[in-house]
Amino acid sequence: MADKKIAAYICQGCGLGERLDTAQLAKIAKSEGKAAIAKQHEFLCNANGVQMIQNDIDNEGVTHVVLGACSRRAKTDAFNFQNIALMRANLREGVIWVRPDDEDNRETTQEMADDYIRMACAEAKFVDIPESSNEQGLNRTVMVVGGGVTGMTAALETAKAGYNAILVEKTGALGGMAAKLYKSIPQSAPYSTPADSGVADLIAQVNSNDRITVHLNATLNKTSGAPGRFAADIRIESGATFTEQFGAIIQASGFKPYDARKLPEFSFGKTPDVVDQLGLEALAQAANGAPIKRPSDGKEVKSVVFIQCAGQRSEKQGHLSYCSGHCCSTSIKQAMYFKQANPDTDAMVVYTDLRTPGAGGEDFYRNGQQQGITFTKGEARTVTINDGNLTVKFKDLILNEDVDMDTDLVVLATGMMPNSGVDIEATPAKLDENCKDCSNDEKSGAVAPVIQESVLNLDYRQGLDLPQLVTGFTDSHFICFPYETRRTGIYTAGPVRRPMDMLQAQDDACGAAMKAIQVIENSSKGLAAHPRVGDLSFPRFRKEGCTQCKRCTVECPFGAINEDEQGYPQFNESRCRRCGTCMGACPVRVISFANYSIDSVGQQIKAVDMPDEYSEKPRILVLACENDAYPALDMAGMNREQYSAFVRIIPVRCLGSVNTIWITDALNSGYDGIILMGCKKGDDYQCHFVKGSELAHIRMSKIDDTLTTLNLEPARVATYEVAITDMHRVPQLINDMAATVLRCGMSPFKF
Amino acid sequence: MTEVVATNQTILVVGGGISGMTAALEAAECGKQVILLEKNPSLGGRVSQLYKYFPKLCMPTCGMEINLRRIKANPNVRVLTLAEVTQVSGTTGNYQVKVKLSPRYVNSNCTACGACADAVTAEFPNEYNYGLNNRKGAYLPFFMAYPQRYVLDPKIIGTADADKAQAACHCGAIDLDMQTEEMDLQIGSIIWATGWQPFDADKIQPYGHDRFANVITSVEMERMMDPMGPTGGRLVRPSDGQEAKNVAFIQCAGSRDRNYLKHCSRICCMATLKQTTYLREQFGDAGRATVYYIDIRAIDRFENFYQKVMKDDNIKFIKSKVANVIENKENNNPILRGVNTEGYHRYADEYDLVVLAVGMQPSVDFKSLGIDIVVNDNGFIEQNPHNGGMFAAGCASDALDVNRAVQNATASSLRAIQVINQVAGAEG
Amino acid sequence: MAKKEYSFYPGCSSQKGASSSNYLKSANAMCDALEIKLNHIPDWNCCAASIGYAGGGKLPRISLSARNIALSEQAHPNQDIVATCAACWLATKEASERIDHDPQIKQEVVQVLDAANLKIKNNKPVRHMVEVLIEDFGYQALGKKVVKPLEGIKIAGYVGCQTNRPFGIAGESFENPLYLDKLVETMGAEPIKNYDKKVQCCGGALAFSEPEKSQAMIKDIITSAYDSDADMIVTPCPVCQMNVEVYQDQINKKYGTKFNMPVVYYSTLMSVAYGKSAKEAALDGQIIKAKQLEAIANK
Amino acid sequence: MSNTAKYRNDFLKEVEANVEEGEWVKMCMQCGVCAGSCPLGNAWEHTPQKIFMMIRAGKRDEVLSSDAMWMCTSCYNCIVRCPREVPITHIMHGLAHYAKRLGLVPANQPTAKFAQLFWNNLSKRGRINELTLGLGLYFMNGFVEGIKTSIKMQSLGLNMIKTGRMNVMEIFGGHSVKDTSGFHAMLQKAEEIEATRIK
Description:
The structure holds four protein chains of four kinds. Chain B is α/β, with parallel strands linked by helices. Helix content of chain B is 24%, strand content 25%. Chain B has helices at 18-28, 60-73, 115-119, 160-168, 218-225, 268-283, 302-310, 366-369, 402-427, and strands at residues 10-14, 33-37, 77-80, 83-91, 94-101, 123-125, 134-136, 138-139, 151-152, 181-187, 189-192, 196-198, 215-217, 246-253, 288-293, 315-319, 324-327, 334-340, 345-350, 353-358, 360-362, 390-392. In chain B, the strands form seven sheets. In chain B, strands 3-2-1-11-22 form a five-stranded parallel beta sheet, with helices on one face. In chain B, helix 1 (18-28) runs parallel beside helix 2 and helix 6 packs across helix 7 (302-310). In chain B, 61% of the residues are buried. By secondary structure, chain C is of the alpha/beta class. Chain C has two domains: 4-129, Glutathione S-transferase Yfyf (Class Pi), Chain A, domain 2 (Up-down Bundle), CATH 1.20.1050.140; 148-297, Rossmann fold, CATH 3.40.50. Chain C is built from 13 helices and eight strands. The model of chain C has no long low-confidence stretch (mean pLDDT 96). By secondary structure, chain D is mainly α. Helices cover 55% and strands 0% of the residues of chain D. Chains in contact: A-B, A-D, B-C, B-D, C-D. At the A-B interface, helix 9, helix 12 and helix 16 of A face helix 2, helix 7 and helix 9 of B.
C-alpha cells in the first residue's frame, strides 16, 4: 500500500474552540505527532469540513486521519471515509464535557486534550489499513446435523434461499422425535384441537428438493476447517467414510427424553400403565383415533391422569432443574386425544403452575377446559399399583388435602435433555482437578450425569463439541444474540439450544439458516462475524518469537486457533472474532492485528506527556472496553459529569486483549494509577467475547507481583466490571483512583 | 426532499426496536439492501426503556450499543425515523409502500451539543418515561438515541421557543420550515416489527391505577430504576417521594382475562421476578416483595431464575388473583384484598407500592391500517402463506421475551431474503 | 317539547303502602318536571328479584319477566321498558337477554306464555330510570330544570350493586361509577367524590335472613359516609335505600354508634331541586328526616 | 369412604346437566378473584372457586348440603371480575335451587327459608305482599321465635307504617295481579318443562 501519510484535523465546534487552544493542538499534531497536515476547522462535521478532509485524502494522499473532535461514537455518518485509517481523539465527551469551564481548570483541561492528540497520532503511526488475507473460500453449502423437524426445516429454508444443504441423520430415517407424535400442538388460531405434525410432508419436501443431499445412518467422524471451508468425514452404516465440503454448520441434534426410570415414586417401569409423554404418543398412534387402550390389559382407558413436571423444576439429585416449556401444552393435547375419542373419559392434569404462555397457549388451555379436561393444582406424590389398578397420591393445593385417586392410566410429563454432545469444559482431566464443581452441578441437578458421545467431532484444539451452559444446552449470548455460539460458523437450533416446542424449533431453524448463509457470504470476503461484523483485521504472529506456550490456543474464547505438530498456533481467520484475547494472552507479544497491536496501544500509553514527580499532576491510565465501559464514559460526558483531569482513557476491543506488558510499561513510565474497565464475567457473562473479561481479571490478579517488585502499592491498579449504564459510577471510579493516588503519593518512576 | 432509492430487491423493515434492528441487520450483513422505518425520533423501541433484562440482569443498552455500531458501520441499512407506513399495495416481490415522514425540525448538522434544549423553556410529558416526568420542547429522547440528533416537539413550532432554539444552535441544524413528506417506495419484501404496547392499566378498574398514586405499572417501574430515569434510579412512591421498600406485584394485570386481554403475555411473570431483585438491589434486607399470581410461567432456563428468587426469604408468593385494591386514606398505602387460594386465607395486605404486571398488546392494528395480512383475534400476525412477502418479526407475531423476539426476527430476515433472492433469480 | 313516554314497570316495593312507595312518589314528581310520561305496564307481576331462586328455577323466573315484557309489548308497542327498581330492571333485562341469546329458552318461553295467552317479541330495550335521565336528557338538560339548587348539602352517592353490576350504566365503571356524583352536582349539591363504599353491597335480601352479616356491611357504608362528612346518602335502589335507612337504630343499639343519616333517592333530590313540595318529593317517607331538603322544599 | 368417585367427573357432569349455567364450572381456572370479591366471603363455608374445585373433586354431598350458595347476596362482583366470564352468581343460585329440589339444604338455613317464602308469596298472587312476607319471615322458626323477632322489629315496623311504607291492611290480601289464572297457568307450565329437564 501507499506510504503512510498522517493528517490531523482539530474541530472548534461544540465549544471546543472556546474551551481549548486548538492552534496548540494542531501544533502538537505536527511537531510531536509527525502529522504531515494539521488543520483547524470551526465545524468539522458539516459538509464543508468533511469535504476538506476528503480533498486531502483524494489529493494529498492522506492515509491516516486523526480527528480531534467528538467521541468515536458520535457523527459516524459524517466521518465516514473509505480506505483510510481513522483515529478519534475524544476532545468533547472525553475532555471539555467532563471538566469545569473555569480558569483554574483551563490548564489541566488543555493538557488532557494535548495528550489525546499525541495518543491519536501515536496510534496512527502504528496502525495499518487491514486487508483480507484471502485465506478463505466460498462454499454455498450448509451442513445440517440432525434430521428431525428442526434439521429438515433448516435444510429446506437454506435451500429456499438458494443455497445447498447436506442433511446428516444418525438414524435410518428422517423425522426425529416429531415422527413419534400422533399429532402436534396446534400452531395457529383457533388453537382448539391437536394438529397434524406435518412431518410426513416435511420429509417429502426434503427428499424431493434437489438442493438437499440426505445422508441417513450417518455420523460425523471428524469435522475440520472454518466458515467458508469446512470439511467433514462422514461415516455411514456400512462403515465407509467419505468427505463433504461446506461453508457453515447447523447443529440440530435435538433432545432425548428424560429417563423416567429415575422416578421410582411414580412406578414407571413397574407397570406398562404408567407412561411418559412419548409413550402416550405411541399408544395414541396405535389407537389412531379410536379410544386409547391400556397397555396392561387392553381395556379402554376410562380415566387418565397427567402428572406435570415429573422429574423437572426440581433440585433433587438426578432431576432437571429447568422447565421444558412444552409439557403443559403437550398434556392438554394428549388429554384431547382421549376426550375426542370418547368424551366420557375422565382426563385430569395435576400441575403446580400451568404454563401455556403466549397468545395460542392460553387459547389452547381454555379449549382444553371447554372439552372437559379437568385441571387440579396439586403436587403428585406417588403412583402405586393395587390389583392391576393405579392409585395416584397427590396433595390438592386448592382444597388443601391429600388425595388417593384411582385411575386407569398415568402419563408422566418428563423433560427434554439436549443432545449437545461432549461437555468439553468437564473433560475427565478437568473433573480430576476440581471434582467439586461438577459434582455440585450434579447435586444441583443442573446436568444429568449421562455419558455423551460427540455430535460434531470437531478437530478443534478446544474440544469435540460446542461449549455448554450449566444446564447442558449449548452456550450462546442467549438474550440479544441467541445464535452467537462460541464456535464461529456453527449455529445450533431447536431443543439442543433451549427446551422448545415444534413451532419455536422451526422458527429457530429458520434463524440458524439465516446466520449460516450470512457467515458463508462474509467469511468469503474475509469479513468478521458478530460482533465486529465486517472487520477485515485478523491476528498474525511472528513465528520466530513464538515459544509455543499455547496460551493463545487455550484462551481463545472461540476455539479459533489450532496448533500445528510443533505446537505453533494456527489462526483460522474466519473462525476468529477479532477480540484480541490471543494478543492479550501472548507472553512474548508476537500476536498482532494490522490495526490493533501491542504497539498501537502501547505507544499511546508512552505518548502521554508525563509531568515530573513534583508537579502534583499524576497520570491515571484507563483501559476501557469499547463495548460497554467506553459508552458509559461517553454518556457521563453527555450528562456533564466531571472526573479527574489526570486521567487518560484508551478504548480496547475487549479487556481480554489487554496484554500485561501495557500495565508494566505504564507503571515503568510513571503512571500513578491504572484502571481496567470490562464487562460482567461468570455464568451470566455480559462480555461480548464471552471469556475476555474473565481472563483479564485472572491475568490482573497476578499483576501484584509486578507491583511489589517495583514496590508500588497494589491499590494503584484496579480492575472493575462496568455496565454500560454506569454513567454515574465510572466518574466515581476514576475519582476514587485519583484519591488513592493522592494517598499513595506520586509514582517514583517518572523519567 | 429525503432521497431514498429502493427496488423490488429492497427489504423494508417497519419498526426500529430490538426485533426490527435485528431483522434489518441480519439481512444487511448478508449483503441485502434494507430500509429500516421507525415512527419515533430514534431507534431502540421498548427495550431501550427497560432497566435490566431477565434472566441475566444485564443492561438492554449493552446489546443495543452493539446493534447501533452494526448499523453505523453498514451502508446497506438506511434508517428513516419519524416515519410511518400509510399504505401498502402490490404483491410478493413487488410492493408499493407509501411512507409518511414527520418533520424533526433538526437536520443532519446537529452535533447533539444540547444548546437548543438549554435555550427553550416549555416542557411536555416525557413519553420515553411514560409521562413520569417532563422534557423540554427541544430534546434528545435519551442518551443512546440514534440518530444522535435532537428533536423539536411540533408543539413549540410557531412559538418563541422555536426561535430561541434556532438562535441557540451554532451548527445551523435547526430548520423550522421542515414539512411532512410523503414517500413512495418500491419494495420486494416487508418485515413488520411493529412490536407491542403496555396494556392501558387505567382500564383495570379494580386495581385503581387511575385513582391511587401508589399503584404503578411494571413498565413505569423500569423507568424509575434507570439511573437516567425520572427518579434518578430511585424506587419511590409517587404520592410522597418516599422510598418504596415493601412492594406488591399483581400478575396478569390485563392478561389472561376476557375482560381485557384474553391471551397470556408471557413476559410478565419473569419481568416481576426480575423486578423483585431490584428491591433487594436497592434496599438490601429492607427490600420486600410479595407476588400475587395465578400461575408462575417461568419456562426453560427461566425456571432456574424463579428457583433462585424463591429462595429469598424477603420475597413471598401468593397464589391469588387480587380482587381489588383500596387506598388507606391516612398514608396513601394501597391495600390489596383477596383470598389466598392455597388454604383459603382472606387477606387485606397493605404495601408502600403496588406494581401491576401489565400485559403486552400489539402496537399496530393491521386491520384498521388496511394491510392485507392474517391476524389472530389477539391482534398478532400469524404465519400464513396468504401473507406473501410480508412477515412478522418479534412481538408483532406473539407476546415474546427478547430472546424469542430476536430468534423470530432472525428467522423473518431469512424469509425476506428468500423472497429477494427469488426476485433476483428471476431478474437474473 | 313533546312528552317522552315509557312503558313503566313499577315493581312490588313501589306499590301503595309498600316499602319504597316514596320512591315512586318522588319519581312521579321528577318525571312531571321533566315532562316524562310513565305508562304503567297493565297487570305486571313480580320479577322474583334476586331471591326467588330457591323456589323458582331458571325457567319459572324467566317467565315472570317474560310475562311483563309481553304485557308491555301489548300495551305500549313503541315504548322502551323502564324500571326504577334495581332488582326489577336487572331481572327483566337479564331475562330479555337470555331469551335473546338462547334459542331453547326462547322456544320454552313462548310455550309458557302461551299458557297465559301471551306472545313475546322481546324486541324492546329494558332500561333503568337513571339511563333515561342520562341518555335521553343528559346532565346539562337535567340541570336546566333546577329551580332550587341544593346548595351546601354534602351528599354521598351510594350506587350499590344491581344498578351497577353486571350491566351498569353505559360508560360507567363497575368499581367507581360517577353518575350519582354528577347528578348531585347537577342539582347544585356537593358530591363526596372519594366516597369509598359507593359500590359496597348492603346485603340485599339477606338483610332479612342474615341481619347480623348485612348490618355489619351497612354499618361500613354509613360510617364511610360520616368519615367523608356527608350530610346524607343518595341511592338509585329501593333495597339499598331501605337497608341503609331503616336499620340504623338497630345498628346503633348493637354497635353503640349514633347514626342518624338520611338516605334519599336521586328522584327525591331532583324533585326538590325542581321545586316540588316536600310532600310531592315524598320527604314524609323518610324514616330519618332529610331536614336540609325539607328546608329547601319549604322555601 | 371409597376413593373411586374422587376427582372423577360424575358429579361435574350431574351439575352440568341439572344446574343453571352448570356447564361453566369446568372453565374456572382457580384464580380466586370471586372468593376475594364476595362481600360475605368471610361468612361462607366455601367460596365459589372452592365450590367449583369441590365439584371437580366429586364432593357431591359436601357441595349440595353446603350453606355456601345461600350466602350469595347477588351483588354480581364475582361475575364482572371473573377473568373467564363465568356466570358465578347464576351458578350459585342454580346450585341453591338444585340442592333445595333434592332436599339437601341444611336445616334452618335462614336464606333458604326466606327465599322459599318469597317465592311462595309471589307465586300466590303474582305480587309480593311485604307484610305477610315479613311476618312469615319472623315466624319461620316457630311461633315463639316469631314473637321475639316481631318485638325486636317492632320499632322498625312502626316506622314503616308511620311513613306509609307498610300497610297493616295487607294482612287481608293486598296487591295482586288481576289475571291470576293466566299467571298460575304460566308458572305451572314453566315448572313442568323445568321438571322434565332434571336428569
